[in-house]
Amino acid sequence: MDTRIVLIGIIVTDREQTGEMNALLTEYQEYIIGRMGLPHHEHKGKEIALISIAMEAPGDVINALSGKIGMLPGISSKVIYAE
Predict the structure, then answer these.
(1) What pTM does this model have?
(2) Helix (H) or strand (E) holding 35
(3) How many domains is the chain partitioned into structurally?
(4) Tens digit of pLDDT per residue, the chain (83 long)?
(5) What is the CATH classification number for the domain harbouring 32?
């Protein structure tokens, strides 16, 4: 099956949802190349986190993970595809 290399950018504005998000990342760990998280404690009086996920996976797997993450309240995600 054809795979793509992507970065998934994630912004967490509701820290209560990080457990669900981490469970999803664990579920898809076989496709994840690396992960970097940056806490940002003061943004408009709110604590947020910025996370990037590098992965190589088939398109349907990428879309499934990004969609599931983006459906969590207080979390948004976008995918950047390598050419």
Answers:
(1) 0.88
(2) strand 32-43
(3) 1
(4) 799 999 999 999 988 889 999 999 999 999 999 999 998 877 677 789 999 999 999 999 999 999 999 999 999 999 999 97
(5) 3.30.70.1150
